[in-house]
From TrEMBL:
Residues 584-765 form the Lon proteolytic domain. ATP binds at G348, P349, P350, G351, V352, G353, K354, T355. ATP-dependent serine protease that mediates the selective degradation of mutant and abnormal proteins as well as certain short-lived regulatory proteins. Required for cellular homeostasis and for survival from DNA damage and developmental changes induced by stress. Degrades polypeptides processively to yield small peptide fragments that are 5 to 10 amino acids long. Binds to DNA in a double-stranded, site-specific manner. GO terms for molecular function: serine-type endopeptidase activity. Belongs to the peptidase S16 family. Induction: By heat shock. It comes from Exiguobacterium mexicanum. This is Lon protease. It catalyses: Hydrolysis of proteins in presence of ATP. The keyword Hydrolase applies. It is found in: Cytoplasm. Its EC number is 3.4.21.53.
Amino acid sequence: MEQLPILPLRGVVVYPLIGVTIDVGRPLSLRALLAAKEHETDLIVVTQKETGKESPEPEDLYAIGTRVHIAKMSELSNETVRVRLVGKERVKINSIEETKEGWFADVEPLELVEGEEVERTALVRLLKEQFGKLVGSIKGLSPDERRRFEMYERLESLTDYIASKLDVDVDIRQAMLEEPDAVKRGLELLEIMTHEVEIIELEQELRERTKKTIEQAQKEYYLREQMKTIQQELGDQSQESEPNRLREKLEALDLPETTRKNVMREAERLNVVPATSPEYAVIRNYLDWIASLPWGIETEDKLDVKHAADVLDDDHYGLESVKDRILEYLAVRQLTNSLRGPILCLAGPPGVGKTSLARSIASALERHFVRVSLGGVRDEAEIRGHRRTYIGAMPGRIIRGLKQAESKNPVFLLDEIDKMASDFRGDPASAMLEVLDPEQNVSFSDHYIEEPFDLSNVLFIATANDVSQIPAPLLDRMELIQIGGYTELEKVEIAKRHLIPKQYKEHGLKKSQLTIKEDALYEVVRRYTREAGVRNLERVIGSLCRKAAKQIAIGEKKRVTVSLKSLGDYLGKPKYRYGKGETEDSIGAVTGLAYTAFGGDTLTIEVALAPGKGKLQLTGKLGDVMQESAQTAYSYVRSNAERFGIDPTFYERQDVHIHVPEGAVPKDGPSAGITIATALISALTGKKVRRDIGMTGEITLRGRVLPIGGLKEKALAAHRAGLTTIVIPKDNERDIDDIQDTVREKLTFVPVTTLDQVLEVAFGGN
């Protein structure tokens, strides 16, 4: 036994007679090199069991190592030594001792086993043959090294050489080092190399197969390019890939069987028609549209009534009737899971939230949302599409909207449905009948697509300002939900919850930078806006935000507070007078209540008498119905003149002029009948009409008062104008419950059936 310095190696196994160059940098390893150099002895190298261990212990080393000779050693610049080692013999490590100079090991040569000569000779031949097949695939071997294995005649040397060159794991290399029997080593190496040769042959086979495939593809590509060149020379630019692409997309669609047959027939035609033919583009565009529609794509409804109620309440303040109807629909869907989508029509003045309510419904259901504006649509083809024979033909807005929605059950908003018109190109409102009829829209047929498409699962929501402009057959197919205007309290609450945060965000303001006090908001609602909705209110709030942003940006103020006192500094003088009613009891002037597409309003109807021959003059841009209502009131007063204390012959000596102020604004409708009659009687009798009273109702020639529409909106207008009493037809008593509590509590409603009852309230003892 000898005691020699020991050098641990990581991931490297050194064999006898094989040279290896390594870089040594660990202190333990450097001390081993230094000890071997100073004592002029050989070195023992042994492999670590765990490659990643930086500071190994003796038990972390294998028990078999190699005695090596240091052939060359040179220092590198980074405290690393590069050393060339040449193996001598296998050694067995009996013990390791740590000294000042490093680790020293007691070693003895490993006893080797000799085998039979014939077996050894045969193994040498087989090993050389197999390694010869592998040598070309081993990286890093120089040409000289590739030929060197043929010089080895001894089995021990040959196995060590091959083991050092094969790309195998460290534990296999160590096993080869520890095996004393060269025959067993040779058989193990032979098995490893045979496996590697099989893998290489398989790789070669795959490589050849891939090469053939690539060559075939290149050949086909070359031939296609030649074909394209020939076709270009002939003026026939075929697009062979286009029909195949469309066919693949069409085959993947979930089409009804009849539709599939028709569409695939068109796809076959596309293969036959030359690409230069105009018909080719028509068929291709048609198939593109078919492939882009959501035939079988449907989103899953979130049928959670409580969640939907929370979403609707978060997005909108008020609108309880609409919310209740949507929640009823969801509740029925949740219980039956088979109800078709309803067709709702949200009717009301601008700015009350009809469009945004539809978006909230889509959000609550977790459906896709698509909006189509029908304002100004005059062409029936806008709804049903054009025939494919026309140049530039395309599907109608319904099919285009479904493509945009990417599902067959979206929330589909038909905005401004009352603004459609008709001319020589057809009636789009009539074309909408099939779309909105639950019995027919299960197989809606567009003129361009020409295949039935199921619209029964679409939740259609229409919006309108004036229901009277919607044709009766179309209105009959929709469930009408009237949305009235907002009260002052509701407008202020909407501003605080929605409008102000939205404008803060749009103008880059923080909540701490701008404060709008509640009394200022009430003043904005009363004297700077006059509307049923909140659209102008949002614009005024935006104006306040812009002015505040300017002051903050130029450094004039760090934070802005808008109060009732400072409101005029930002918005100027008020635009409207709060309380539009008369300031005092008047003769011949009565406040009427009107309902327009923009909500309720108050109209002061004036009557003036002048000497003349009984001429009746009507001014104020009155419509035919309102003019007839004025003539009816005039006739009633003439026929009952004596009963009212009026000279029966007044019409022979006096001209009567009836005027409705704001003459540039068109006015129509029968609901001003009792107002005109009261103003006439007041002017002819000289009795004053109470200033705090408003009235609405149609009058007959017998003095009967008939019901009217829009009572809720008219009540809101009366409330805004500061009136305290409203005269309404008896038949409209049922509509009082629809009016908000805050408005109903501040108004006195007087139901009447005859004009006598109206006069009793209007004159109030005057």
